[in-house]
């Protein structure tokens, strides 16, 4: 008999260190490949007794390790043994609170994740999913979702793919996710998501991402209603992590009459998780009244690309706001599309003093973009921006910043006339221009260019 003592602080029985070691050895010796109970498709009574003792004593990590060992043995036995072991685990979890459930599941060391991912029998798969559906909601709502988030990720994978040879797997996974991400669970998670504790926020974010589409809808609604910019930014990050499942909900926001920041954030997420099919809807927002939305649109189109994106970006070079024009220029440079060369060259050729292009920042960005594209057709515009107005003149039509940007961009053009111009500019009276030209000359010598 084991020596048991009462623990007044917890109400649990406690085991002495010697008795605990003796019990684990005894149970461990009983659990082997030839255990008669396993051969009958049952859970070995020694494992049941040992786990009960450990749970009663609050030794949940050791109880989980014991259950994990029994599960591994069941894996090498029959289907009945696996199903009975899962039902036994469900019974053990049923007597615990969410925090204790989390401790026990963590100590299983990923066995359940492997079992769910590799299950080849629909009855075993269904039994494991039922156990998850039973305990996952209360654990998520209590902030103890870490052990089940990997399981939910596997369910998401299965819900989006075919059955993989396991009849009904996709439908089972879809129903399970819907049963886990209930309105009550989402409300609790969103409360944690908006609290002031960063650790709790992080846990809630991971749990929301694991919930998938229902969480994407809840987070998108939060984007519309939250007054805090910080919360909205966290919601955007979470939606990006959810990925494809957030796309249909975000596109709805672009169709409707929503505040400017909702549309901007929707575009920001679609920039990272969307594809070519979202370009027309995003491009339509280039006419939005708020420039902050238009800037985000130009950024997104520079990431997604395609003919319509390039056309919209070129049109954006004529936007009334310099910030929008600048982002359109940057995106065209990133896309390196030759169709943008005439518009970018013309942009550099505009006269700052004549107010035809009021922002030297935009012209600097245009120089950099032409350097990224690196086509000879743009070299003349850069040469004209850098050199003096006349051969014998020291006057320049461009500001110091634009001349420096032009010099740096010319490093993409290994031509004799470019080298000659940069060598002359390396002796320019302006210190910044001399430095930029010298840097460009060294880049030409090493073979590096702004387009690399």
Descriptive overview:
The protein has 452 residues and is mainly alpha-helical. It folds into three domains: 177 residues, Alpha Horseshoe (Leucine-rich Repeat Variant); 94 residues, Leucine-rich Repeat Variant (Alpha Horseshoe); 117 residues, Leucine-rich Repeat Variant (Alpha Horseshoe), CATH 1.25.10.10. Helix content is 68%, strand content 2%. It has a two-stranded antiparallel ribbon with strand order 1-2. A hairpin with a 4-residue loop joins strand 1 and strand 2. It is elongated and about 95 Å long. The chain starts with a strand and ends in a 6-residue tail after the last helix.
Percentage of residues in DSSP E strands: under 5%
> What oligomeric state do these chains adopt?
single chain
Sheet/helix structural class: mainly alpha
Query: What's the CATH C level of the largest domain?
Result: Mainly Alpha
CATH topology of the largest domain: Leucine-rich Repeat Variant
Give Rg in angstroms.
32 Å
Q: Which regions contain 5 or more consecutive residues with pLDDT less than 50?
A: 1-12
Distance linking N and C termini: 75 Å
Number of helix segments?
26
Helix fraction, binned, reads 55-70%
Cα shape: elongated
| Mean pLDDT across all amino acids | 86
Work out the count of structural domains: 3
Would you count the extended β strands for me?
2
The CATH architecture category of the largest domain equals: Alpha Horseshoe
H/E series: EEHHHHHHHHHHHHHHHHHHHHHHHHHH
Strand order of the largest sheet: 1-2
């Amino acid at each position: 008999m084991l020596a048991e003592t009462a623990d007044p602080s917890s109400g649990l029985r406690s085991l002495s260190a010697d008795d605990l070691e003796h019990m684990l050895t005894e149970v461990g010796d009983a659990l082997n490949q030839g255990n008669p109970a396993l051969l009958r498709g049952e859970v070995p009574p020694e494992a049941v007794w040992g786990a009960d003792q450990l749970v009663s004593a609050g030794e949940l990590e050791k109880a989980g390790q014991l259950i994990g060992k029994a599960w591994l043995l069941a894996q090498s036995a029959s289907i009945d043994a696996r199903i009975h072991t899962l039902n036994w685990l469900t019974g053990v979890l049923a007597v615990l609170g969410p925090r204790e459930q989390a401790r026990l599941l963590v100590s299983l060391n990923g066995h359940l994740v492997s079992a769910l991912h590799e299950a080849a029998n629909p009855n075993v798969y269904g039994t494991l999913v039922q156990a998850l559906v039973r305990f996952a909601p209360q654990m998520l709502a209590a902030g103890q979702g870490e052990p089940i988030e990997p399981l939910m990720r596997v369910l998401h994978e299965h819900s989006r793919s075919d059955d993989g040879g396991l009849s009904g797997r996709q439908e089972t996974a879809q129903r399970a996710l819907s049963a886990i991400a209930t309105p009550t669970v989402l409300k609790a998670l969103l409360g944690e998501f908006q609290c002031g504790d960063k650790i709790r926020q992080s846990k809630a974010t991971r749990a929301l991402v694991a919930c998938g589409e229902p969480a994407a809808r809840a987070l998108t609604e939060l984007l519309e209603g939250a007054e805090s910019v910080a919360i909205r930014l966290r919601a955007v990050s979470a939606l990006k992590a959810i990925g494809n499942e957030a796309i249909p909900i975000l596109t709805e926001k672009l169709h409707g009459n929503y505040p400017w920041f909702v549309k901007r954030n929707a575009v920001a997420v679609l920039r990272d998780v969307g594809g070519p099919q979202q370009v027309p809807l995003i491009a339509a927002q280039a006419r939005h009244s708020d420039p902050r939305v238009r800037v985000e649109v130009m950024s997104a189109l520079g990431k997604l690309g395609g003919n319509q994106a390039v056309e919209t970006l070129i049109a954006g070079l004529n936007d009334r706001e310099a910030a929008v024009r600048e982002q359109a220029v940057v995106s065209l440079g990133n896309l390196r599309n030759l169709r943008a060369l005439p518009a970018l060259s013309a942009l550099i050729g505009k006269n700052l003093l004549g107010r035809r292009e009021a922002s030297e920042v935009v012209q600097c960005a245009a120089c950099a973009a032409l350097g990224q594209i690196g086509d000879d057709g743009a070299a003349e515009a850069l040469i004209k921006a850098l050199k003096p107005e006349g051969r014998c003149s020291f006057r320049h039509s461009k500001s110091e910043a634009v001349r420096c940007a032009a010099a740096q961009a010319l490093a993409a053009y290994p031509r004799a006339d470019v080298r000659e111009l940069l060598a002359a500019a390396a002796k320019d009276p302006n210190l910044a221009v001399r430095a930029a030209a010298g840097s460009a000359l060294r880049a030409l010598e090493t073979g590096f260019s702004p387009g690399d």
